[in-house]
From TrEMBL:
The chain crosses the membrane at residues 27-53. The lineage of its organism: Bacteria, Pseudomonadati, Planctomycetota, Planctomycetia, Pirellulales. This is DUF3311 domain-containing protein. It comes from the Bacteria. Keywords: Membrane, Transmembrane, Transmembrane helix. It comes from Rubripirellula amarantea. It holds the Pfam family DUF3311.
Amino acid sequence: MKYVVWGLIAVLVVIHQDVWNWNNDKLVLGFLPITLAYHAGISIAASIVWLIAATTAWPDNLEDESSDTLASGSSQEASV
């Protein structure tokens, strides 16, 4: 899955360069320039890729350590 995420990041970097839209004066929904709409789409795609990266590549041992620390901290406070 790591290589899929890196591949998606590479695709985002490549399609971020929108040379073909620089001279395009079309409006999306009648008010939004096409280049701004394109970059909004790229931003949404980047956030989805980041979500995939965070959910698939996040180390499980960090979650275990934080829950152990919280559990031991709350039991120490209760015994004081």
